[in-house]
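ugh ok fine here u go
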Amino acid sequence: MRIFQLNKYKKEARKNLENGFFLVALFACLIFIAYESTSAVVTSATVGDRELPIYCVDTTEKRIALSFDAAWGAEDFPKIMDILDKHKVKVTFFMTGGWVDDNPDCVKELVKRGHDLGNHSQHHYDMTTISQSEQEKELMDVHNKVKELTGYEMFLFRPPYGAYDNAVIKTAYGLKYYPIQWSVDSLDWKDYGVDSIISTVCNHKALGPGAIILCHNGAKYTAEALDSMLTNLEGQGYTIGPVSELIMKENYHMDVAGKQIADEKKQ
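structure:
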Protein backbone atom coordinates (compact mmCIF):
# COMPACT_ATOMS: atom_id res chain seq x y z
CA MET A 1 0.00 0.00 0.00
CA ARG A 2 2.82 2.37 0.92
CA ILE A 3 4.61 1.57 -2.36
CA PHE A 4 1.42 2.33 -4.30
CA GLN A 5 0.98 5.69 -2.54
CA LEU A 6 4.64 6.56 -3.10
CA ASN A 7 4.37 5.85 -6.82
CA LYS A 8 1.17 7.90 -6.90
CA TYR A 9 2.91 10.87 -5.26
CA LYS A 10 5.84 10.56 -7.68
CA LYS A 11 3.48 10.66 -10.66
CA GLU A 12 1.69 13.73 -9.29
CA ALA A 13 4.96 15.48 -8.57
CA ARG A 14 6.23 14.72 -12.08
CA LYS A 15 2.96 16.01 -13.55
CA ASN A 16 3.11 19.23 -11.53
CA LEU A 17 6.72 19.74 -12.55
CA GLU A 18 5.86 19.25 -16.21
CA ASN A 19 2.94 21.65 -15.90
CA GLY A 20 5.25 24.17 -14.27
CA PHE A 21 7.74 23.93 -17.11
CA PHE A 22 4.87 24.32 -19.58
CA LEU A 23 3.60 27.48 -17.89
CA VAL A 24 7.08 28.98 -17.77
CA ALA A 25 7.60 28.19 -21.45
CA LEU A 26 4.17 29.61 -22.33
CA PHE A 27 4.88 32.81 -20.40
CA ALA A 28 8.24 33.24 -22.12
CA CYS A 29 6.61 32.68 -25.50
CA LEU A 30 3.96 35.32 -24.81
CA ILE A 31 6.61 37.82 -23.80
CA PHE A 32 8.52 37.14 -27.02
CA ILE A 33 5.38 37.57 -29.14
CA ALA A 34 4.50 40.82 -27.38
CA TYR A 35 8.03 42.11 -27.94
CA GLU A 36 8.02 41.19 -31.60
CA SER A 37 4.63 42.84 -32.18
CA THR A 38 5.68 46.13 -30.60
CA SER A 39 9.38 46.40 -31.34
CA ALA A 40 8.73 46.83 -35.08
CA VAL A 41 6.90 50.10 -34.43
CA VAL A 42 8.84 52.33 -32.07
CA THR A 43 7.49 55.87 -31.91
CA SER A 44 7.67 58.69 -29.43
CA ALA A 45 5.60 61.86 -29.41
CA THR A 46 7.09 62.92 -26.07
CA VAL A 47 9.40 65.91 -25.84
CA GLY A 48 10.23 66.70 -22.24
CA ASP A 49 6.89 66.64 -20.50
CA ARG A 50 4.87 67.39 -23.64
CA GLU A 51 3.11 65.12 -26.12
CA LEU A 52 3.26 66.61 -29.61
CA PRO A 53 1.37 66.11 -32.86
CA ILE A 54 3.17 66.05 -36.21
CA TYR A 55 3.65 69.58 -37.59
CA CYS A 56 6.11 68.69 -40.34
CA VAL A 57 8.61 66.01 -41.33
CA ASP A 58 12.40 65.99 -41.40
CA THR A 59 13.42 65.19 -44.98
CA THR A 60 15.90 66.44 -47.55
CA GLU A 61 13.52 65.66 -50.42
CA LYS A 62 11.36 68.53 -51.68
CA ARG A 63 8.15 66.79 -50.71
CA ILE A 64 5.27 68.57 -49.01
CA ALA A 65 1.71 67.63 -48.05
CA LEU A 66 -1.46 69.56 -48.78
CA SER A 67 -4.44 69.19 -46.48
CA PHE A 68 -7.98 70.54 -46.33
CA ASP A 69 -10.17 70.80 -43.26
CA ALA A 70 -13.79 70.08 -44.16
CA ALA A 71 -16.26 71.21 -41.51
CA TRP A 72 -18.71 73.26 -43.53
CA GLY A 73 -19.82 73.75 -47.13
CA ALA A 74 -19.13 71.79 -50.28
CA GLU A 75 -20.07 74.22 -53.03
CA ASP A 76 -16.51 74.49 -54.32
CA PHE A 77 -15.71 70.80 -53.81
CA PRO A 78 -16.09 69.80 -57.51
CA LYS A 79 -13.83 72.67 -58.60
CA ILE A 80 -11.19 71.72 -56.02
CA MET A 81 -11.29 68.10 -57.17
CA ASP A 82 -10.89 69.07 -60.84
CA ILE A 83 -7.93 71.37 -60.10
CA LEU A 84 -6.22 68.64 -58.09
CA ASP A 85 -6.79 66.22 -60.97
CA LYS A 86 -5.35 68.75 -63.40
CA HIS A 87 -2.15 68.88 -61.37
CA LYS A 88 -2.23 65.13 -60.63
CA VAL A 89 -2.06 65.94 -56.92
CA LYS A 90 -3.52 63.85 -54.08
CA VAL A 91 -4.32 65.52 -50.76
CA THR A 92 -5.79 64.81 -47.33
CA PHE A 93 -9.30 65.89 -46.32
CA PHE A 94 -9.84 66.09 -42.56
CA MET A 95 -13.62 65.76 -42.18
CA THR A 96 -16.03 66.34 -39.32
CA GLY A 97 -18.91 63.96 -38.74
CA GLY A 98 -21.37 66.67 -39.72
CA TRP A 99 -19.62 67.20 -43.05
CA VAL A 100 -19.67 63.46 -43.70
CA ASP A 101 -23.40 63.36 -42.92
CA ASP A 102 -24.16 66.30 -45.20
CA ASN A 103 -21.88 65.26 -48.07
CA PRO A 104 -21.69 61.46 -48.34
CA ASP A 105 -21.20 61.63 -52.12
CA CYS A 106 -18.18 63.89 -51.63
CA VAL A 107 -16.68 61.41 -49.19
CA LYS A 108 -17.13 58.61 -51.72
CA GLU A 109 -15.64 60.82 -54.45
CA LEU A 110 -12.54 61.43 -52.35
CA VAL A 111 -11.98 57.70 -52.07
CA LYS A 112 -12.69 57.19 -55.75
CA ARG A 113 -10.09 59.79 -56.72
CA GLY A 114 -7.45 58.38 -54.38
CA HIS A 115 -7.28 61.09 -51.72
CA ASP A 116 -6.68 60.59 -47.99
CA LEU A 117 -9.63 60.67 -45.63
CA GLY A 118 -8.73 62.19 -42.26
CA ASN A 119 -10.66 62.50 -39.01
CA HIS A 120 -11.54 66.00 -37.74
CA SER A 121 -13.85 64.80 -34.92
CA GLN A 122 -17.60 64.40 -34.83
CA HIS A 123 -18.67 67.81 -33.53
CA HIS A 124 -15.55 70.01 -33.95
CA TYR A 125 -15.25 70.52 -30.20
CA ASP A 126 -12.12 71.82 -28.55
CA MET A 127 -10.82 68.40 -27.58
CA THR A 128 -8.94 69.74 -24.55
CA THR A 129 -12.24 70.64 -22.85
CA ILE A 130 -13.79 67.16 -22.86
CA SER A 131 -13.06 63.89 -21.08
CA GLN A 132 -11.03 61.02 -22.51
CA SER A 133 -14.14 58.93 -23.10
CA GLU A 134 -15.71 61.86 -24.95
CA GLN A 135 -12.53 62.34 -26.99
CA GLU A 136 -12.59 58.68 -27.98
CA LYS A 137 -16.24 58.94 -28.99
CA GLU A 138 -15.54 62.07 -31.04
CA LEU A 139 -12.98 60.16 -33.09
CA MET A 140 -14.65 56.79 -33.33
CA ASP A 141 -18.08 58.12 -34.32
CA VAL A 142 -16.57 59.63 -37.48
CA HIS A 143 -14.26 56.66 -37.99
CA ASN A 144 -17.11 54.16 -37.97
CA LYS A 145 -19.32 56.40 -40.09
CA VAL A 146 -16.69 56.72 -42.83
CA LYS A 147 -15.82 53.03 -42.68
CA GLU A 148 -19.47 52.06 -43.09
CA LEU A 149 -19.90 54.51 -45.97
CA THR A 150 -16.71 53.71 -47.91
CA GLY A 151 -14.84 50.86 -46.24
CA TYR A 152 -11.93 53.26 -45.64
CA GLU A 153 -10.05 52.92 -42.32
CA MET A 154 -8.95 56.40 -41.28
CA PHE A 155 -5.72 56.79 -39.31
CA LEU A 156 -4.96 60.53 -39.48
CA PHE A 157 -6.49 62.95 -36.97
CA ARG A 158 -6.41 66.74 -36.87
CA PRO A 159 -7.68 68.30 -33.63
CA PRO A 160 -10.30 71.02 -34.22
CA TYR A 161 -8.90 74.55 -33.91
CA GLY A 162 -5.46 72.95 -33.65
CA ALA A 163 -6.17 72.64 -29.92
CA TYR A 164 -4.48 69.79 -28.06
CA ASP A 165 -2.83 68.79 -24.81
CA ASN A 166 -1.03 65.66 -23.67
CA ALA A 167 -4.28 63.80 -23.13
CA VAL A 168 -5.56 64.51 -26.66
CA ILE A 169 -2.35 63.24 -28.28
CA LYS A 170 -2.32 60.12 -26.12
CA THR A 171 -5.97 59.45 -26.97
CA ALA A 172 -5.23 59.73 -30.69
CA TYR A 173 -2.29 57.34 -30.56
CA GLY A 174 -4.29 55.00 -28.34
CA LEU A 175 -6.89 54.73 -31.11
CA LYS A 176 -4.16 54.04 -33.69
CA TYR A 177 -4.32 57.56 -35.12
CA TYR A 178 -1.42 59.83 -36.04
CA PRO A 179 -2.22 63.35 -34.74
CA ILE A 180 -1.51 65.90 -37.48
CA GLN A 181 -1.07 69.68 -37.25
CA TRP A 182 0.45 71.93 -39.93
CA SER A 183 3.51 74.11 -40.44
CA VAL A 184 2.10 76.36 -43.19
CA ASP A 185 -1.29 78.00 -42.60
CA SER A 186 -2.83 79.46 -45.77
CA LEU A 187 -5.07 81.70 -43.62
CA ASP A 188 -7.73 81.12 -46.28
CA TRP A 189 -10.35 81.08 -43.54
CA LYS A 190 -9.74 84.81 -42.97
CA ASP A 191 -11.08 85.63 -46.46
CA TYR A 192 -8.25 88.02 -47.33
CA GLY A 193 -8.53 87.13 -51.03
CA VAL A 194 -6.95 84.99 -53.71
CA ASP A 195 -3.59 86.75 -53.89
CA SER A 196 -3.23 86.62 -50.12
CA ILE A 197 -3.65 82.83 -50.06
CA ILE A 198 -1.11 82.30 -52.83
CA SER A 199 1.45 84.66 -51.29
CA THR A 200 0.95 83.38 -47.74
CA VAL A 201 1.57 79.76 -48.74
CA CYS A 202 4.21 80.15 -51.42
CA ASN A 203 6.33 82.68 -49.50
CA HIS A 204 5.80 81.21 -46.04
CA LYS A 205 8.89 81.11 -43.83
CA ALA A 206 8.12 77.50 -42.86
CA LEU A 207 7.66 76.31 -46.44
CA GLY A 208 10.32 73.72 -47.14
CA PRO A 209 10.88 69.99 -47.49
CA GLY A 210 8.48 68.12 -45.21
CA ALA A 211 6.01 70.99 -44.72
CA ILE A 212 2.30 70.35 -44.16
CA ILE A 213 -0.02 73.00 -45.62
CA LEU A 214 -3.42 73.81 -44.15
CA CYS A 215 -6.32 74.92 -46.35
CA HIS A 216 -10.08 74.74 -45.87
CA ASN A 217 -12.81 73.32 -48.05
CA GLY A 218 -15.64 75.85 -48.05
CA ALA A 219 -13.45 78.93 -47.52
CA LYS A 220 -14.41 81.84 -49.77
CA TYR A 221 -11.35 82.10 -52.03
CA THR A 222 -9.57 78.75 -51.68
CA ALA A 223 -10.82 77.07 -54.83
CA GLU A 224 -10.07 80.17 -56.87
CA ALA A 225 -6.52 80.39 -55.51
CA LEU A 226 -5.71 76.67 -55.71
CA ASP A 227 -4.60 76.41 -59.35
CA SER A 228 -2.08 79.25 -59.13
CA MET A 229 -0.91 78.10 -55.71
CA LEU A 230 -0.13 74.61 -56.99
CA THR A 231 1.56 75.99 -60.11
CA ASN A 232 3.78 78.20 -57.94
CA LEU A 233 4.72 75.37 -55.57
CA GLU A 234 5.50 73.04 -58.47
CA GLY A 235 7.60 75.82 -60.01
CA GLN A 236 9.63 75.89 -56.79
CA GLY A 237 10.38 72.20 -57.33
CA TYR A 238 8.03 70.72 -54.73
CA THR A 239 6.28 67.39 -55.10
CA ILE A 240 2.86 67.73 -53.47
CA GLY A 241 1.02 64.79 -51.94
CA PRO A 242 -1.20 63.62 -49.09
CA VAL A 243 -0.14 63.55 -45.46
CA SER A 244 -0.11 59.74 -45.42
CA GLU A 245 2.72 59.65 -47.97
CA LEU A 246 4.81 62.27 -46.19
CA ILE A 247 4.84 61.19 -42.55
CA MET A 248 6.80 58.31 -41.04
CA LYS A 249 4.66 55.50 -39.70
CA GLU A 250 7.23 53.99 -37.31
CA ASN A 251 10.64 54.38 -35.70
CA TYR A 252 10.50 58.15 -35.22
CA HIS A 253 10.55 60.82 -32.55
CA MET A 254 9.66 64.52 -32.39
CA ASP A 255 11.70 67.65 -31.79
CA VAL A 256 10.46 70.62 -29.76
CA ALA A 257 8.87 72.18 -32.86
CA GLY A 258 6.81 69.11 -33.67
CA LYS A 259 9.05 67.97 -36.51
CA GLN A 260 8.94 64.22 -37.08
CA ILE A 261 12.47 62.78 -37.18
CA ALA A 262 13.54 59.26 -38.05
CA ASP A 263 15.26 57.30 -35.30
CA GLU A 264 18.86 56.30 -35.97
CA LYS A 265 19.08 52.75 -37.18
CA LYS A 266 20.91 50.42 -34.81
CA GLN A 267 23.95 48.72 -36.29
